[in-house]
Amino acid sequence: MMDHIFRTASAILTEGHICDHCMGRLFAKLSTGLTNDQRGAAVKLALAMEADHTRRETSNNSLLQDLAPSSIHARKSLGQDVPQGRCWVCNGLFEQLDHWADQVVDALAGYEFDTFLIGTRPSGLLLENEEILWAGSGTQWAEPLKTEMNREVGRRVEEMLGKRADLNRPHITALLDIAKDNVELEIRSLYIFGRYRKLIRGIPQTRWPCRECRGKGCPRCNYTGRMYPVSVDELIGPEVIKAAGAKDTVFHGAGREDIDALMLGDGRPFIVEAVQPLKRHIDLTRLQHRINRYAAGKVEVLGLKYVEHPAVEAIKEAKADKVYRLRLTFSAKISEESLISALDIIVRAPIMQTTPTRVVHRRADLVRERKVHYTELEELSPDGLSATIVVGCQGGLYVKELVSGDEGRTKPNLAENLDVEAKVAELDVIKIEGIII
User: Fold this and answer.
1) Which top CATH class is 321-433?
2) Which label site among 57, 170, 220, 356 has the fewest CB atoms less than 10 Å from its CB?
């Protein structure tokens, strides 16, 4: 093993001066408890000692002479003068570790974070030099230059800031761009979970650009660029941006209600993502009060708490049952007995629902089977032309079409069971079940 190490190191030294870091990195996987520069210095010293031993025995100092221009630490240990030179592999990069650590600290100024990670984007020249080094040495024990750079700069930043490097989910990643001599920051988003109640009709959940101009502004949208003046997203986001010093927000809802529907009860689960936040430690009770004051009478949020990114997928993929309150109108007078009987049919039978005509332009035209768990008649008007019912059903069921039938695309349906035209006049979501974050 030692002979192989010596042969490898000797071959590399003939290429020119190589620093201790780059020499040691060739053997990074062979030992623990040492830094690469310590490994490199040890290999060079061992080579020089071996050369000196050979010289004493054979009076042939050619090996030492060959090694001398590249083995700085070894020659110093033998009391010889050492000409200084720049490493041909890293081009002196590992002499600038403190410089890069200072750049990172300067770039991070003003950001609130607990964990960080260093990444390195080597220049084309460094990548080419490393490829030559690995090909020439044939070593199987090396680690990439950028791995050592990340570790060494990261260790210095840890000491300077008292922060912790995290390889898995750092709050901030500092990318060292070697060619440009600058540091780029990748700021992990901040995720806040809560529930919202929508108290008025006519508000979409998220920003809705004008269909005609796609947000640019036109006569149809009165040059606002949007289909609706405000959304749930836009009533929650501004206060989050202000509190976190974020660049923007992204809204993630656990499904969505129709624009003309209310969202009542204990609200719909959502996550607001603060993009590129300056602050990560926010008083969420205070934030909740500020949002509710800003959106007063339109939207109310409750139960704010911090979550991590996987929670976004969790609420989007959750299979939540819904409870609706529907105010219905009928084209002819119906009796309480006939309505109760019609409601009973849609509970007992599976609902076969083809994608409704009102959304088929943006969703696949499929037949889906859904289930109504229960129904309740709350009120039937004295004239028998309107009623209020409660429907508890499987998530994904289109309840408006459950009532109207959508020209036969939903079966069974309430209108068909009553043999009258039936429509939903108002719809409220009063409960979303089964989502726990």
Assistant:
1) alpha beta
2) 57
